Amino acid sequence: MKPSTLSPMTNHLIDSLPHQDRVSFLADCEAVDLVFGEVLAEPGGRISHVYFPLNSFISLIANLSDGDRLEVAMVGSEGMFGMPLILGIEESPWHALVQGAGPALRIPAAVFGRHLEQSPALQALLKRYLYVLMHQLSRVAACTHFHQLEARLARWLLMTQDRAHSDQLHLTHEFLAMMLGVRRAGITLAAMALQTRRLIRYHRGDITVLDRAGLIEASCGCYASDRRIYRQVIIEGEVP
């Protein structure tokens, strides 16, 4: 990780704060460049910093005792990493892995805690974001059990595209298999099916989204549900 030299972008949570709260919070943030494959936290490890991705994104991965791994959430410019601190817990339940390199803002956990105590607006916003994350986690559990792999892959590609802000994605079959908790052969068949429908183009780990509308139609309803909850709770500020 290194200080960011890229053009400043935005994080929707920080942008949603009232002006004075936002100015005060940003004064204690540091701009950094997240590096692909960088580990920001391990399960049971202490959370030293809170991260607000700008044009980068982080996978939150559950590790099982037998070595299996499954991505349970993804954080980009719509969110943050460090949610347990909102509950007063300093340990991470997840393996936090940088999946999309790029700029982010970070703030030391202790300083973040002081802002949380002093800003009712920050508390209210992050409590709503925590609800959104809980919704995403529950959807992943149900989606993994009930929905077909092709639809789950379409959903995951859309989520990645949203956070990468690009139609061009670099994702190997091995990585996709780990993220979705399936065998590599299953990913191969699902990717081939989406490519046959001309929704994506896949070659040697490079994926191009050709038809986003078609990919949304091919995905399960979980993708639309995630976006609806985020819009309702974070953007419109309503509680379901």
Describe it for me?
- Mean pLDDT is 91; it is low at 4-8.
- This protein folds into 2 domains: 2-119, Jelly Rolls; 148-219, Winged helix-like DNA-binding domain superfamily/Winged helix DNA-binding domain (Arc Repressor Mutant, subunit A, Orthogonal Bundle), CATH 1.10.10.10.
- Helix 5 (149-164) packs across helix 7.
- The longest helix has 27 residues, at 120-146.
- Helices cover 45% and strands 22% of the residues.
- The N and C termini lie far apart (38 Å).
- The protein is built from 9 helices and 11 strands.
- Give the structural class: alpha+beta
List the total number of helices: 9
Report the C-alpha radius of gyration, rounded. 18 Å
Task: Indicate the CATH class of the largest domain.
Answer: Mainly Beta
Tell me the overall shape: globular
Largest sheet: 4 strands, antiparallel
Rounded mean pLDDT is 91
What percent of residues are in strands?
15-25%
Helix content: 40-55%
CATH-defined fold name of the largest domain: Jelly Rolls
Can you tell me the number of structural domains?
2
> What is the annotated CATH architecture of the largest domain?
Sandwich
Low-confidence stretches: 4-8
Which sequence of strands runs across the widest sheet?
A: 1-2-8-4
**N- to C-terminal distance:** 38 Å
Protein name: Crp/Fnr family transcriptional regulator
Domain HTH crp-type: 147-213
InterPro entries: cNMP-bd_dom, cNMP-bd_dom_sf, Env_Response_Regulators, HTH_CRP, RmlC-like_jellyroll, WH-like_DNA-bd_sf, WH_DNA-bd_sf
Keywords: DNA-binding, Transcription, Transcription regulation
